[in-house]
Batch of 2 targets.
Target 1
Amino acid sequence: MRKFLMIALNTVALISIAAVAFAAEGANTYGDLVYFGAALGMAIAAAGCGIGQGLGLKAACEGTARNPEASNKITVALILGLAFVESLAIYALVVNLMLLTA
Amino acid sequence: MKDFSEKIEQRLYFKGFRLPDIRSILRIQIQLCGIAIIAAFITVWFSKWPITFAIGAVIATFSFFSVAKFVQQIILREYDRSMLWGMLFRFYGRLLIVGVAVAMLIVKFHVPMMALVSGLATSMVTMLIWMISRQNGRKTKEA
């Protein structure tokens, strides 16, 4: 019984996917998946950059609190790190906009 | 050229950039951006590529300038509530401006992507130039 149920469910799934694929033919090749992919890509990029910037800021704050004399050097490293991470977010935005307009 | 570099650094100092390393990085970025803009104006009749590259460089310079100013204000200034709100407003305003500019360029004006990304990557080139010049400076001091 379980085997039959699995085969039946798989068949239904395959047929439904095939219907979607045939419906998409001729129109936009990837349909709404492009929007989904762009949104997901931007979300992952924003999350990654947010985590990276947060970690950098945390380490800089700790370093400055422990050794205030080194704050100038830490600030330079922090600014460089933030600029690098932020440029990655801008690249992700460009790539996602490319996806949307392709 | 040296006078011009010193003038840029002086202007940056009066704008509130107290750290010499950050001033020199910003100076290199501004000079690169200036070169890109001049090249774009000279070759604007041939293709869209140079002007898009220059726009990308301007966006990268603006973004880096704002991040550097924001972090310096956080670390070096005394806090008060109005200043904090102003800084946050400017930070998010800058993010919005960059996002809208990039979206308009790609969606509305259909600029060449590689040129835009190359322009945005000038900040990386700036870091590279700065690191090399710093290494050379150290070697000269040691010698």
Note: The radius of gyration of chain B is 17 Å.
Target 2
Amino acid sequence: MADIHLESLAHSYDPAATSPEYALKPLDMTWRNGETYALLGPSGCGKSTMLNIISGLIQPSHGRVLFDGDDVTGRGTAARNIAQVFQVPVIYRSMTVRQNLAFPLVCRRRQRAEIDRRVGDVAELLGLQRVLNRPAVALTADQKQLVSLGRALVRDDVSALLLDEPLTVIDPQLKFELRRKLKEVNQAFNITMVLVTHDQNEALTFARSIIVMNHGEIVQQGDPQTLFDNPRTEHVGYFIGSPAMNFLPAAQSADALGVLDGQLQVPMTSAMRGSDDLKIAFRPEHVNLGGEGHRVDARVKRIWFEGLDQVLELDSGGTRFRARLDDWRGTVGDAIELRVMDSHLRVFRDGELLEAR
Amino acid sequence: MKTVYLAIKYLAILLWSSFVLFPFLWAVTTSFKTANGVTGGATWIPWLQYEPSLQGWQSLFGGSGGTDITGPYFNSIIVTGSASLISIVLGTLAAYGLSRFTFKAGFIRNADITFFFISQRIMPPIVLAIPFFLLLRQLGLLDTLAGLILVYIALLLPIAVWVMVDFFNNVPRQLDEMAWLDGCTPMTTFYRVILPNSVPGLIVAGMFCLIFGWNDFFFAFTLTFTDTQLLPVAIVALNSSVTPWWSLSASALISVAPLILLAFVVERFLSRGGLAGAVR
Amino acid sequence: MSALTLQNLNLSVRDETWLDDISLHLEPGALYTLLGRTGAGKTSLIRAIAGLETLDAGSIEHGGVRWDGLAPWRRPVAMVYQQFINYPHLSVLDNVAFPLRRAGVAAAPAREQAWQTIQRVGLAAMADRRPGALSGGQQQRVAIARALTKDAPVLLLDEPLVNLDYKLREQMREDLVELLEGRQSTIVIYASTEPSEALQMSARLLVMEEGRVVQEGPPRQVFDAPASVGAARVVNDPPVNILSMTLDTDAAEVESLGWFSLETLLGVERLGLVGDQGLPPGQYYLGLRASDLALAPEGRPAVVTLTEVSGSETVTHLDMAGCHLVLHERAVVNHPVGSQIHIRPRLSTVFVFDRNGRRVHVAQPGQRADSRQ
């Protein structure tokens, strides 16, 4: 168990170059013991580089990695007591589930009784008791992934658990269960967990703190609600939320900023002046059929039924945007009157959120 | 720490390469020596330590005290080349069948057939020599190139099948299925989709066949007399009561030359990558 | 305009039933989604249609032509795999032109046609590259383009987007729907494990469970009235709560909640489960959507075991008398773990299933809070 500090950390795969291209741009960060974190971003955003630096598979070209103030930058993976669960379940095919779970302790020459106790505890937590004596190869994909996880948990000296897209191979219905087990493990063992994923939904529901990455850079870090309500950049607004946030290029007048032929307007402030790239943004979830707010008239262009609700693609005066509605029934081509609360409107200048509006 | 590690690494590489290269160095110097040059202990530097001579090389091409190895050389190329080629063609076809289709004949299954091929190489060659001798005599093919080619195919085919079955088993089956759904019959699938993506496997199998075929002495010796001589037999025939180290060295160099050349070409080719991108 | 008719398809491998007596009639111009868990038989069914599996029994007929015994290369089907399968030795353009060339189209027109498809899937800049040099999403676009150029009347898509990044998947889903629009003579069969994907994309949903198609219908119909416990589970994310229940002649009691009477739990008697019009007494399962539970001060107490907050919604896991329940709220609410909250079902949809998991009843007591249904 440890706090993890990343101190002016950066990584370039070619540090000798005159202007090195960073896979990970310089950053400082602290990960608190017992917390849940998610590194979220598209393929190639640097999240795997970051994970590998923490696990010790990659030596960072700049900066230090500290575990509880202890510099581990030069140490290998084994010396860091990091446990990792990978995208594809890693099991020892020749062993039973029990032997698989016991293996890390057997390797460390622990007492028989202690091994049995730890394996029993972990199996109970993960619900693997009934399959303990089965060969590990005979398990389903999600059970195998639980065994990989269990092998990480039997050790009592684990500083942090790194989860590298561990839910990719799992059915949606089982994902839910596995996510629940992970959170229970987090609570039961008070262990720091870092989840790497490209799935925003997974990141938001799993972690208390989400680190959104893009092009080797941390774009924003925050809890799910902050990322959802106040994305710092257009990228975050696009990446968090499904469908993405609506970003509408705004027309400027002397005293107001408007979109959709002025149906949505915000007063002009000094922070907005002097840029051609101003956008008004709002979440599809924040568009309502009735109630308070700016009125917007639109026509339905497309409907995506999602069960509890539906996502509509709407057209208003040639501008397209989306809304998520749970209490509307109609067909493509219908005219529709919508409301957007003023408090849900955000202004982006040059791709970045204007905090105080 | 890092520099020490590097130093040890390079030292190890240096030691190993000198160990490997030493016989070559010895062969090269010896091939330019005469009887006088050989007897006086190990010497390395021409002109200073010994008087270089082309006698060893000349003796290989009809010069005094030797035989002309040009004929055997070309015989070896023809026999090894054609036997390898036929083995690869037949072996690849057989291997694809064994890898992709299920055969049933009584208790015999695919695995049994594959084992049958490999079992040919489990037997010591001496066991095969007499049957081969009798067979070839019956067919009137003793001491002929055609006879040798037949025998070599029997020896090389198992190697080709073995390597290619393993290779095809690692080519995703979905690639075949995709080709079927795109309108290829199994035969067109094989030559339009599987074969173009099997070049690395073909090269490995080909290398094995060429090396085994080229270096075989035993069958070349037992199944020929005077008309059809292969290179290994011709080289051995150079030997006499006084060992002619100079011509033996020269012939050794000449006989490994094609294989070394091949290794260089293939290495270049293999490093350009094989099946990348078939399946994520 | 020919329909595809499957009759009594059966397939078992090593004593395991992969397809269990499947009969379907599929019409052109519609996107059918096979929705089911891994191992439900989706891939087997797709492969059987393509001729890649040898059926134990059953027949497939398309436009009056029986496909029994027809080799895969003679069937008018195109397919996209879950893995990114392309021909590594051919350029993107030649990959896409490949099926046309095999069908006997000359090189120049085949390449011309392939070029147009490549443009439609947005890969024009990559036409000369080998598939190995492309990203995962681009590789799958090549595979889709190849399937589209073949222009087969039956298009099989076996979880084509499952290996892609989340946001890319979102984008590709929309692109795919657009690409398939206007193909009035094509029968598209799309396999998926994701409820939202299946509900969004398909015209008709085919729910698969243990090698059988347990329900077929428009997405909304399946969602509103799942035919079985399995169907209810597979179309709902977050998951539906399934509770066991005993019906007497005059009361319904929920066993899994420590024998609460259903009336107490739901606070209503108008479910129509008991009485003259009710169900025969016996053992049942009760299905309650996570979104059909709500916080209510007068409701029953439950202990919070876990909270999952996404940007605008909260899923809370609860323990009520030893039974695991899931509550889905459309707001960000951070219920502390271990705290007690009171919940009760909304007066909305309740599914009742018999002990074999088949739905016997959809109870919709009173008016729903919203106008849906």
Note: Residues 13 and 19 of chain B are 10 Å apart (CA to CA).
